[in-house]
């Protein structure tokens, strides 16, 4: 999963995005020039989300080259298992909170475009449906 995520390039990936029906997330929020900081979240569960919100431009490996501003809770608390199977709890804010919510959404069958206006969602859905039809014909 890390190989796919880094190659894309992306900062997070849910197992379901690569056809693995498991509740696993890989993530690395490190900057290009710094050392990699890979993280794995197994069976992540969102326990709490703040009323305060934050807006970030999100993109997705499942919807290439499409980015949109998405507003989500600014802070979250997530329970998960680490690679050793130990229960962990994480309070996150900023980009980490946004990325966790984005990837947990994938595990629950939700895409980031489900958080934008119907007009924008319909526009991008139509664009990708048209591209898929064209690819199937060609």
Could you walk me through the main structural features you see in this protein, from its secondary elements to its overall organization?
With 138 residues, this protein is an alpha+beta fold. The strands form 2 sheets. The protein has a 5-stranded antiparallel sheet with strand order 1-2-3-6-7. Helix content is 29%, strand content 37%. It is built from 3 helices and 7 strands.
In short:
This protein has helices at residues 2-7, 94-107, 118-137; strands at 12-14, 24-27, 39-49, 53-60, 63-73, 75-81, 87-93. By secondary structure, the chain is of the alpha+beta class.
Keywords:
single chain; 138 residues; 5-stranded antiparallel sheet; two-stranded antiparallel sheet; 3 helices
Q: What order do the helices and strands come in, and which of them pair?
A:
Layout (H helix, E strand, L loop, with lengths): L1 H6 L4 E3 L9 E4 L11 E11 L3 E8 L2 E11 L1 E7 L5 E7 H14 L10 H20 L1
Antiparallel strand pairs: 1-2, 2-3, 3-6, 4-5, 6-7
């Amino acid at each position: 999963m890390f190989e796919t995520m880094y190659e894309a390039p992306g900062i997070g990936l849910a197992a379901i995005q690569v056809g693995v029906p498991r509740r696993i997330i890989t993530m690395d929020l490190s900057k290009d020039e710094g050392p990699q900081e890979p993280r794995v979240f197994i069976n992540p569960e969102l326990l709490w989300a703040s009323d305060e919100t934050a807006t970030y431009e999100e993109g997705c490996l499942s919807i290439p080259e499409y980015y949109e501003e998405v507003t989500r809770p600014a802070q979250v608390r997530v329970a998960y298992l680490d690679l050793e199977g130990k229960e962990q709890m994480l309070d996150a804010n900023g980009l980490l909170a946004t990325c966790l919510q984005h990837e947990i959404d994938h595990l629950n069958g939700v895409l980031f475009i489900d958080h934008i206006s119907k007009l924008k969602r319909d526009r991008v859905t139509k664009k990708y449906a048209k591209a898929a039809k064209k690819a199937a014909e060609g």
